[in-house]
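Input (structure):
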């Protein structure tokens, strides 16, 4: 029997997937607990086509994000901040500064996607982490100079 999963079920599948399970398992457990809906043979092709389209769009999105990650990896950002003579900054470099520097290079990301190992409070070279998705993470080189 084919069912459409309403929730993620361990060892069966993810939400939105159409899977084949034993008739008794579907009728006695999954459907009464509102975890799945029974799919008729006539509707099966429609759901399978929808799944194919979704997987293709996911692949396209992942390839675009992969290319963006490669672009970010080779970019060297430079941020100028006011600093003391010994190289300490008045304040620190924020995620907003990094997002603005990347925006100048025609790369648009969210400030929540940027993370530092530690707070940047002095001039020098740093490596920052940019998390595009949960699986696509890249690093970027950052040079902080004084004004």
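Output (sequence):
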């Amino acid at each position: 029997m084919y069912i459409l999963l309403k929730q993620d079920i361990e060892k069966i599948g993810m939400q939105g997937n159409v899977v084949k399970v034993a008739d008794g398992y579907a009728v006695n457990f999954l459907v009464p607990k509102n975890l799945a809906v029974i799919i008729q043979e006539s509707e099966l092709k429609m759901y399978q086509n929808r799944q194919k389209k979704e997987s293709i769009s996911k692949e396209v999105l992942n390839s675009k994000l992969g290319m963006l990650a490669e672009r970010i990896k080779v970019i060297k950002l430079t941020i100028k901040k006011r600093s003391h003579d010994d190289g300490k900054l008045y304040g620190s470099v924020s995620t907003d500064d990094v997002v603005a520097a990347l925006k100048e290079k025609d790369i648009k990301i969210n400030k929540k996607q940027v993370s530092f190992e530690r707070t940047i409070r002095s001039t020098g070279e740093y490596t920052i982490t940019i998390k595009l998705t949960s699986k696509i993470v890249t690093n970027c080189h950052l040079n902080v100079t004084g004004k």
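Notes: The longest helix spans residues 41-74. The first strand starts at residue 2 and ends at 5.
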